[in-house]
Amino acid sequence: MGEQTEFEEGQRAPNPGVYVEVGEARSFHTQIQNPKRITMERGDTFPETTNKNRKWKKAEKARVH
């Protein structure tokens, strides 16, 4: 079983790093303009996203192909 890569408001960060908002449709056609970026430490709680359909994802894993 793989590790979780997307997180919702209120969940705790599993690892330190920079996290960005991603949309519900992970298509390059629906990129988020100026997504929120946050720096988290392990155990920090994820804040609210700009839109209820968005989630947090570690920046290095949120690349668009």
Detailed description of the structure:
Helices cover 0% and strands 25% of the residues. The N and C termini lie far apart (24 Å). The model has no long low-confidence stretch (mean pLDDT 84). It has a four-stranded antiparallel beta sheet with strand order 1-4-2-3, with no helix packed on it. The chain has 65 residues and is mainly beta. It has one domain. It has strands at 6-7, 17-22, 37-40, 55-58. The protein has no helices and four strands.
Spell out the key features of this protein.
4 strands, four-stranded antiparallel β-sheet
Number of strands: 4
Rg over alpha carbons: 11 Å
Structural class: mainly beta
Tally of discrete structural domains? 1
Q: State the end-to-end distance.
A: 24 Å
Write down the secondary-structure element order. EEEE
Average pLDDT taken over every residue? 84
Helix fraction, binned, reads under 10%
Uncertain stretches: none
The biggest beta sheet reads: 4 strands, antiparallel
Q: Strand share of the residues?
A: 15-25%
Tally of helical segments:
0
The spatial strand order of the largest sheet comes to 1-4-2-3
What shape does the CA trace take? globular
Helices and strands in order:
Elements: E1 6-7, E2 17-22, E3 37-40, E4 55-58
Antiparallel strand pairs: 1-4, 2-3, 2-4
Quick take:
With 65 residues, the protein is mostly beta strands.
